[in-house]
Amino acid sequence: MDPALTSLLEIQDLRSQARELRTDPAAGRLQEEQFDLDVEQALESLERKIAELVDQLDPKVRRRYDRVRDSLERVVVPVIGGTCYGCFVSIATASAGEDEPNKALRTCENCGRFIYILS
Questions:
Q1: N or C: which end of the chain has fewer CB within 10 A?
Q2: Which pairing describes strands 83-84 and 106-107: parallel, antiparallel, or unpaired?
Q3: How much is the pTM?
Q4: Which residues on neighbouring strands pair with residue 115, listed in sequence order?
Q5: How far apart are CA 24 and CA 119, in angstroms?
């Protein structure tokens, strides 16, 4: 898998965890009660790690990431059966049928999200 795609997926996962801690009081309570974790400190740690990973992205990838992130919640989406699961538009079948389609970083021509191909 392309290293930038791996980083983008990590960033998206960390952003999702932070969003859950911010918006779901039950998740925050669970973290505090079960894991003795201070939610504010956890959020600060997540934000630092996100910023670190974003800073490591190639400038061109980072610009696209910032642009997509500003308008869409999910920046990276799967392509299943030739369909982008961000915008539900079919992508070129040549891309979906490759042996190692995730070796190169790709984007959906319709919605601009980064994509990864699932067989």
A1: C
A2: unpaired
A3: 0.88
A4: 77, 106
A5: 33
Distance CA 46, CA 22 (A): 12
Tell me what pLDDT residue 3 has: 97
- The C-alpha atoms of residue 22 and residue 60 are separated, in whole angstroms, by 30
Of 19, 8, 14, give the one whose Cα is nearest residue 114.
8
How far is residue 85 from each of residues 23, 40, 79, measured CA to CA in Å?
24, 32, 6
Alpha helices in the chain (DSSP H): 3-23, 25-35, 39-56, 59-71, 93-96
Say how far apart CA 84 and CA 88 lie, in whole Å.
5
What phi and psi, each to the nearest 5 degrees, are found at residue 89? -110, 145
Pairwise CA distance, residues 92 & 25, whole Å: 42
Q: Which residue has the tokens 């859950």?
A: 20
